[in-house]
Write a structure and sequence with these properties.
Structural class: alpha+beta
Largest sheet: 2 strands, parallel
Number of helices: 2
Radius of gyration: 15 Å
Strand order of the largest sheet: 1-2
Shape: elongated
């Protein structure tokens, strides 16, 4: 849908899984399909508790 709306756009990602790789033009890192990527903003633990 997005490619149809923006046909001249270049789609880039930091991480790509095999099933999603054909949907992007450029990726930095490829990970296995069963890898769960946890970003800092998705983590339950507040930063104040992580530091100490």
């Amino acid at each position: 849908i997005v490619r149809a709306m923006l046909p001249k756009a270049h789609f880039a990602t930091v991480y790509a899984k095999p099933a999603g790789r054909p949907m992007v033009d450029t990726t930095v890192t490829q990970v296995s399909q069963d890898t769960w990527i946890v970003f800092p903003w998705d983590d339950d633990v507040p930063i104040s508790e992580q530091t100490g």
